[in-house]
Amino acid sequence: MSNELIALYELRRQSFLIGFIQSPENFDSALAYAYDSRIPPIFHQRVGREVHDVDPFDSVYSISPDFIETVTDYLGRVVS
């Protein structure tokens, strides 16, 4: 993981969180939680993972996106 990728993610993260703090009614609180916790926002990336099947920040998150998907798939099977 490069320092440039980490810096770019932190810039994106901080920009979003500043917007959320200033105007929370215009942002999804689940997405704010994901950015604040540095976890992959797997259901909120209209131009990332859901559209292009890749997220350039996968290596930056504190929890692997694959782990999050495994957990949500498991919960989907258990709850259904």
Structure description:
The structure is a single chain. This protein has 80 residues and is mostly helical. The protein has four helices and no strands. The protein has one domain (3-79). The longest helix is centred in the N-terminal third of the chain and has 20 residues, at 3-22. The radius of gyration is 14 Å and the shape is globular.
Q: How does the SSE layout of this entry go?
A:
Layout: H1 3-22, H2 29-37, H3 49-52, H4 65-79
Helix pairs in contact: 1-2
From the structure above, extract its key features.
80 residues; mainly alpha; single chain
Query: What fraction strand?
Result: under 5%
Question: Structural class of the secondary elements?
Answer: mainly alpha
How many structural units, i.e. domains?
A: 1
Helicity, as a percent range: 55-70%
What's the total count of β strands?
Answer: 0
The ordered H/E elements are HHHH
**Secondary structure tally, helices:** 4
User: What general form does the structure show?
Assistant: globular
Alpha-carbon distance between the two ends: 38 Å
Overall mean pLDDT: 87
The biggest beta sheet reads: none
Radius of gyration: 14 Å
The protein's oligomeric status is: single chain
Q: Ranges with pLDDT <50 over ≥5 residues? A: none
